Amino acid sequence: MPATETFRIPKRRQHVSAARQRIRKALANWGITGELADAVTLSASELVANAVTHCRTSYAQVEVTLALREAELMLEVSDPDRDRIPQPNDSGPDEESGRGLALVEALADTCGHRQEPYAKCVWAQFTLAKAEGVAHVPAGL
Fold first, then answer.
1. What confidence category does residue 130 fall into, taking pLDDT thresholds of 50, 70 and 90?
2. Domain that holds residue 98
3. Closest Cα partner for 111 from 133, 86, 92, 90?
4. Most CB within 10 Å of its CB: which of 73, 88, 101, 109?
5. 141 in a domain, yes or no?
6. Helix 34-54 vs helix 100-107: angle between axes, to the nearest 10 degrees?
7. Does the pLDDT value for residue 141 go beyond 70?
8. Backbone phi, then psi, for 47, in 5-degree steps?
9. Residue 34 is part of a domain; what is its CATH number?
10. Is residue 140 a part of any domain in this protein?
């Protein structure tokens, strides 16, 4: 049975940590811990921070969805700045920012973005750990 956690936060930097805590709690409730939980939480933090930083729509909210379906975990971060598509940066070694999308790409199995009618969504997909050729789905799901 699929499990989903969806919530919104105001487009303010101080709310990025609240999103990170909600993601961590949802993962723990689903029995997902360890490296996968760390990778998903860090990816969520990066994608939410990007949405908060780069969305040009005033008084916007950022929507975060975490969905667990069979052997896959999908993280989606949406904001109403539909036409501002994420672009990876070639950050130099002395630059303090600009590596978020590259980090998400390294942590996730796949990632990307899509334009919706009134928003854009940046997503990352993670495969649950496999044991003896069978995907491990947390108990109770």
1. low
2. 3-135
3. 86
4. 73
5. no
6. 150
7. no
8. -70, -40
9. 3.30.565.10
10. no
Closest CA to 46 of 19, 66, 26: 19
Evaluate whether 104 touches 43 at the Cβ level (below 8 Å). yes
DSSP the chain: --EEEEEEEES-GGGHHHHHHHHHHHHHHTT--HHHHHHHHHHHHHHHHHHHHH--STT-EEEEEEEEETTEEEEEEEES-TT---------TT-SS--HHHHHHHHSSEEEEEE-SS-EEEEEEEEPPEETTEE-PPTT-
pLDDT in tens, 3-39: 999 999 999 999 999 999 999 999 999 999 999 999 9
Single-letter residue type at 86? P
pLDDT tens digits along 73-122: 999 999 999 888 877 666 656 555 556 888 899 999 999 999 999 999 99
Q: Please choose, from the candidates 5, 1, 4, 30, the residue with its C-alpha nearest in 3D space to the C-alpha of residue 20.
A: 5
* Contacts for 59 with CB less than 8 Å, ≥ 6 apart: 11
